[in-house]
Amino acid sequence: MSHLPEILLAGYRNFMTGRYAAETDRYKSLAREGQSPETLVIACCDSRAAPETIFDSGPGELFVVRNVANLVPPYSPDGEFHSTSAALEFAVQALKVKNIVVMGHGRCGGIRAALDPNMAPLSPGDFIGKWMSLVAPAAETVTSNTMMTQAERQTALERISIRYSIANLRTFPCVKILEQKGRLELFGAWFDISAGELWVMDRETGDFERTSVA
């Protein structure tokens, strides 16, 4: 009996004979000296939109936080448990990252849930419903627009939620202060799973522009 799914063990074997074998010195250096990534990426849990794959990054290059719909809650030091806020605190205060990228993606299940007022909770705790309430005001506005198709509403809220999260990042004193000092920059991006396109947010207008690969 295997103690891990066989597909994971097979992947691990490929990793050890492939990437690890090619980058052994890099891994040993990271183990010895610790990590010092310059960029924090806040991304979705979705298995189709892994930042390390999309940005073709090597070990130690990105500090990645993933949650449902790549949301950042507002600063709230209330004594509760805050996974995303804890990771943000560590990245900014301990690792001293220079960049924070909030990266959304197309066909996001969390965003779809936020747009469907009739969607039943997956469990009595309704953790996803409560989490997605972070973008409830925007979801209500987008849903009320009868001139848009469902697909257009989905894409619109996926991108609006990125702007929401960036605004919430600035409610954290450590982020706001460092950004004002020019020591930290905030970015937004949206990945189209189907086409492989990366759309980057204009930091002045908030518009999303497709990145050229040429």
Automatic annotation (TrEMBL):
Cross-referenced InterPro entries: Beta_CA_cladeB, Carbonic_anhydrase, Carbonic_anhydrase_CS, Carbonic_anhydrase_sf
Alphabetized SUPFAM superfamilies for the sequence: beta-carbonic anhydrase, cab
PROSITE patterns xref list: PROK_CO2_ANHYDRASE_2
CDD domains, per the entry: beta_CA_cladeB
Gene3D superfamilies, alphabetized: Carbonic anhydrase
Catalytic activity: hydrogencarbonate + H(+) = CO2 + H2O
Entry cofactors: Zn(2+)
Keywords, sorted A to Z: Lyase, Metal-binding, Zinc
EC number: 4.2.1.1
Family stated for the protein in its record: Belongs to the beta-class carbonic anhydrase family.
Name of this protein: Carbonic anhydrase
Organism field: Aminobacter carboxidus
